[in-house]
Design a protein that fits this description.
The protein has 500 residues and is α+β, with helices and mostly antiparallel strands. It has 3 domains: 292 residues, FAD/NAD(P)-binding domain, CATH 3.50.50; 81 residues, Alpha-Beta Plaits; 113 residues, Glutaredoxin (3-Layer(aba) Sandwich), CATH 3.40.30. Helices cover 30% and strands 24% of the residues. Strands 1, 2, 8, 9, 10, 11, 19 and 20 form an 8-stranded mixed sheet that branches. It has a 5-stranded antiparallel sheet with strand order 14-15-16-13-17, covered by helices on one side. It has a 4-stranded mixed sheet with strand order 23-22-24-25, covered by helices on one side. Strand 24 and strand 25 form a beta hairpin. The radius of gyration is 23 Å and the shape is globular. The two termini are 24 Å apart. The relative contact order is 0.14.
Length: 500
């Protein structure tokens, strides 16, 4: 029996598998697709933007350089993006106004593709002893107080926990009985790879029009189109060349001609989320837990954030040293972030609607994102860096993604997090926390010494997912540190945990 079975070998499932494997868990990944290669994963159709927060997750696990190499090369972007097709000017982003940031190898987003992401994660998972079985379709799930069993054909796979990372049409979500609620679609979108007879009739980049939006990507013949039809066409029939050409002409206001369509798929702005991310011993992450339109490129980043948050908590639960209720903080922390992303995409769809009210609102939004403050606000939101969990502390660092503190000897927080343990950083020369950190060595690393910039803190406790769990002043309260460590890592030395 495995510790954890993960259903779905996409980026979210593989990242979670790596997190659990890093912590010494026995992990089995079941994937419905038999083949790993697909034009929908490779460039150009598989192109995806990783936010600064997602890039930082790869950096903190020592996978950023391999990812950049696999992306041939990954294009770095700082403060770019769009809101409802209205482009941001990176030059207008006030990076000095963004809270609690320090120089880091991972302060920028990266353009990559799904094939590159999955290749890097698959190689790391294999190194960590994770088993991946492909061509396996889960058809039933049963659980009791101790185990959960996934059935696929005549085979059964038992584990202590099961996580559904199997996408927007998740089988796990339905089989385990999760409630899925949200809003109906307003548009049908299309992703197309075609031969265009007269591409000069289409403007490059994002183009918001009175009837929808189209996007002409740099890759020849790669198009995105959105038409406000209430989502009527999505998956109702195969998108033919004639249909796609008619939609593109209506939205673009041109008589452009598609000579041939090589690949095409549809999507909508349907926004749905499960009411909880846990049912007994079954959990969900990524699109299995929440679906929305791709506006703003938040889907992959949201799922990777789920995996980073859940991995160490589930591993601690498996090893028996997790404090009571730790795994339930996954829903409490991530559900609100998922709800925000759904609203962010809803807001963009509302602004794009082809009616006078939305058209008027577009003018207001254009004015706002044309300002330095407006551009900075949107850039901060889409970067993922503004996320802050309510961990019950008024200290401005607590609950935030930790800045990449660098000690004067060159040691960086990102380096210390690579083995998947938490980190206690003690910036004092008197090593205030050294004795207090004893007993948690298998669950956190201790590093002491002055920092190049400590942002006014005397010491910080950082969870394995890079979130600040506690911060103290120049003379840290050791008892407060110990309470915080106990809250997130359990009693000191009570369980051996995974090998350090």
């Amino acid at each position: 029996m495995h510790d954890v079975v993960i259903v779905g070998a996409g980026p979210v499932g593989l990242f979670l598998a790596c997190e659990l494997g890093l912590a010494g868990c026995s992990v089995l990944v079941l994937e419905r697709e038999a083949e790993t290669s697909s034009p929908w994963r490779a460039a150009p159709l598989g192109m995806r933007g990783l936010s600064a927060a997602s890039v930082e997750a790869f950096y903190r696990r020592g996978m950023l350089d391999p990812l950049l190499k696999a992306s041939h090369p990954g294009t770095r972007s700082r403060g770019g993006g769009h809101f409802a097709g209205m482009m941001l000017d990176p030059a207008k982003v006030d990076f000095a106004a963004l809270p609690y940031r320090l120089p880091s190898p991972a302060t920028e987003g990266v353009m990559t593709n799904l094939e590159a992401v999955e290749t890097v994660l698959s190689e790391r998972a294999a190194m960590l002893g994770v088993e991946v079985r492909r061509g396996v379709t889960v058809s039933a799930i049963a659980q009791d107080d101790e185990t959960v069993v996934a059935r696929a054909g005549e085979h059964e796979f038992a584990a202590r926990w099961l996580v559904g990372c199997d996408g927007g049409r998740s089988a796990v979500r339905g089989l385990a009985g999760f409630d899925f609620a949200g809003t109906d679609p307003q548009f049908t979108g299309y992703v197309v790879l075609a031969t265009i007879a007269d591409p000069e009739k289409l403007r490059p980049g994002f183009n918001l029009t009175p009837t929808g939006m189209y996007l002409q990507m740099p890759a020849k013949g790669h198009l995105g189109v959105m038409e406000f039809d209430g989502g009527a066409f999505d998956r109702s029939q195969r998108p033919t060349r004639e249909h796609l050409q008619a939609v593109l002409r209506r939205v673009s206001g041109t008589d452009v001609t598609l000579s041939d369509v090589h690949l095409a798929s549809s999507f909508t702005d349907r926004a749905m989320q499960t009411t909880t991310y846990r049912q007994g011993r079954v959990l969900l992450a990524g699109d299995a837990a929440h679906i929305h339109s791709p506006l703003g490129a938040q889907g992959l980043n949201l799922g990777l954030g789920d995996a980073m948050n859940l991995g160490w908590k589930l591993a601690a639960t498996v090893h028996g040293y997790a404090p009571d209720g730790l795994v339930d903080t996954y829903t409490r922390e991530r559900h609100q972030i998922g709800a925000w992303v759904l609203d962010w995409t809803r807001a963009q769809a509302a602004v794009m609607r082809p009616d006078p009210h939305a058209q008027a609102l577009q003018g207001v939004i254009r004015d706002l994102i044309g300002t330095r403050d407006g551009t900075t606000y949107v850039a901060d939101k889409v970067s993922g860096s503004s996320i802050r969990y309510d961990l019950g502390s008024e200290h401005p660092l607590v609950g935030r993604n930790a800045p990449d503190f660098c000690l004067e000897d060159g040691t960086r927080l990102g380096d210390l997090l690579q083995d998947g343990r938490g980190v206690a950083l003690d910036f004092s020369i008197d090593r205030y926390l050294h004795g207090s950190a004893m007993g948690w060595e298998s669950r956190m690393r201790y590093a002491a010494g002055p920092a190049i910039d400590d942002l006014g803190a005397g010491a910080v406790l950082v969870r394995p997912d890079g979130i600040v769990a506690w911060a103290g002043d120049r003379d840290p309260d050791r008892e407060a540190f110990e309470r915080a460590a106990g809250r997130w890592f359990g009693s000191p030395a009570s369980f051996p945990g995974p090998a350090a």
